[in-house]
Write a structure and sequence with these properties.
With 213 residues, the chain is mostly helical. It is 69% helix and 0% strand. The chain folds into two domains: 4-54, Arc Repressor Mutant, subunit A, CATH 1.10.10.60; 66-206. It has eleven helices and no strands. It is globular. The relative contact order is 0.10.
């Protein structure tokens, strides 16, 4: 997270620095991104950068957290719109996120993120309500999910978290598969990504085995 000095900056200077960082992380993967390029684009002294952020990772994960916060708001609104239908919510959320990650204004940023994603990135990218049960976001989910549609209930928060992690893993893996295969003979269309996501989501929702044997 930014240091307190960052939040004391005028809003315009904050945005200029974040815009420069986002552009750099969209241009190249995190490991190749340069603090010098961020400083140059933001037109600030090098020493000033370290008054606002600890290092490159600090500003990267803050940039990522801003995208995550937007995803959290979208997910909460969808949960309200679907009257608590978690699986319907995640299906709509996935289509919107996949389209944003592949065709949206942040597509290059997402491309580098998904191609070089590790567990830490994946966790930080997940909407906050998908995390530990003490968060406000998770409580919102527990209050608004229609548990009559699920085989788990409010007395099983750990089971809810496990289900959410599986659903979000499917979201990330589906989008990552698009980028991992994009320049190969196995390149996928966004429609195929939707199909793959729906297949796995269906397994999570109803199971993959025949029940009446």
């Amino acid at each position: 997270m930014p240091k307190k000095t960052f939040f004391r900056l005028p809003a315009e200077k904050q945005q200029r620095l974040l815009k420069a960082a986002h552009a750099e992380f969209s241009r190249v993967p995190f490991n190749e991104a340069s603090v010098s390029n961020i400083i140059k684009a933001a037109e600030i002294p090098r020493g000033s950068f370290y008054q606002y952020f600890e290092d490159k990772a600090d500003i990267f994960f803050y940039d990522l957290s801003l995208l995550r916060d937007s995803s959290k708001q979208d997910l909460e609104q969808l949960l309200l719109d679907t009257k608590g239908d978690l699986f319907k919510t995640i299906r709509i959320f996935f289509k919107a996120m996949a389209n944003e990650a592949i065709n949206g204004e942040n597509a290059q940023f997402y491309r580098h993120l998904f191609l070089h994603m590790d567990f830490k990135n994946r966790r930080k990218m997940s909407p906050e309500l998908m995390h530990a049960h003490q968060t406000e976001g998770f409580q919102f989910l527990m209050d608004h999910v229609d548990f009559s549609l699920l085989k788990i209930d409010k007395t099983q928060p750990n089971a809810v978290i496990l289900l959410l992690h599986q659903l979000m893993n499917n979201v990330f893996q589906s989008i990552a598969s698009y980028y991992l295969n994009r320049d190969t003979e196995q390149a996928l269309t966004i429609e195929q990504i939707y199909e793959h996501f729906e297949l796995v989501t269906g397994w999570l929702e109803t199971g993959a085995s025949v029940q009446d044997k």
